[in-house]
């Protein structure tokens, strides 16, 4: 039987997960070609932080080794960046002039680090934190230099700061917000997190964005300057100030983009032969940067590539977790508490536990946990399924109750 040709641009977690799902549904439908800009097989990008911290090796985070591609008859091109999509002739062209034709094209080009437009941002050892190459540079620098600055007090920035500290560097985190993880935690939880990280030796400059990066005579960064005249020594600057969907290739091909490659609920672009998933897409106005939504997209996309065509992606509820050993935090939903909500809080400084539950109209709509996250999956389920929690209200703060206790209480109220 003549096979259709499927080309995947982007050898990352989202794209390859779509291939895995597709192979489960119909392994014989396509002749598959994969292009990846990095010289590596598919690896777990979210585990780069444990690698930096010394808890994992690079070899431990490989998801699909070269044998996997070979065993499934997939033609893999590593270290090749696609520079053009010819939609009329249905082919893609790589930077070394390699070409591949397609009947279906899947874009999973991911995202790129946002580098703030600061003077000196092009100096040596000013990097983002997205791939194995960035991680290796940090590991190498930690062997020979002392001072590191991380710009950005979000999840990725704090994981980088923790890892570099464990590697023996003196780390300062610069964050424009008034508390850490100000998009993922409320102020109280953010302050508790800062205290815990300060105990590990990490320093912070909050609410004071940098003025410029200063270099030495050799063109390498050596300091970060602030508007108040102070400065911080920096042999390495890690930019962790957010990401931007990687849409340049799609835009050059004439695909509709607005904060990401626009896709419908089947992850199809405006060109019916081209699909897109992952951090590069905008679905219903949202671009997701966490792995769980990307895997949900991959499953739906594979369903349609396999010509089954009955699944829809309707969006995701995205929780927050920090990959720093010994620090447990979790947030999801409207944890700040919008108008019309009420909050239940538990704060126990002696044990380092803080919990905040936000309710609206007999529903749990937001959660912020620090120090005790044992029931995070249960809270996430309650929010995702919009369950009524009236009969659980007395138990809610203390986690999932015993079903018999709930039943007895319900009968007593009746």
From TrEMBL:
<dbReference type="InterPro" id="IPR041575">
    <property type="entry name" value="Rubredoxin_C"/>
</dbReference>
<protein>
    <submittedName>
        <fullName>NAD(P)/FAD-dependent oxidoreductase</fullName>
    </submittedName>
</protein>
<dbReference type="InterPro" id="IPR036188">
    <property type="entry name" value="FAD/NAD-bd_sf"/>
</dbReference>
<dbReference type="InterPro" id="IPR016156">
    <property type="entry name" value="FAD/NAD-linked_Rdtase_dimer_sf"/>
</dbReference>
<dbReference type="Pfam" id="PF07992">
    <property type="entry name" value="Pyr_redox_2"/>
</dbReference>
<feature type="domain" description="FAD/NAD(P)-binding">
    <location>
        <begin position="5"/>
        <end position="283"/>
    </location>
</feature>
<feature type="domain" description="NADH-rubredoxin oxidoreductase C-terminal">
    <location>
        <begin position="320"/>
        <end position="385"/>
    </location>
</feature>
<comment type="similarity">
    <text>Belongs to the FAD-dependent oxidoreductase family.</text>
</comment>
<dbReference type="InterPro" id="IPR023753">
    <property type="entry name" value="FAD/NAD-binding_dom"/>
</dbReference>
<keyword id="KW-0274">FAD</keyword>
<keyword id="KW-0285">Flavoprotein</keyword>
<dbReference type="Pfam" id="PF18267">
    <property type="entry name" value="Rubredoxin_C"/>
</dbReference>
<dbReference type="InterPro" id="IPR050260">
    <property type="entry name" value="FAD-bd_OxRdtase"/>
</dbReference>
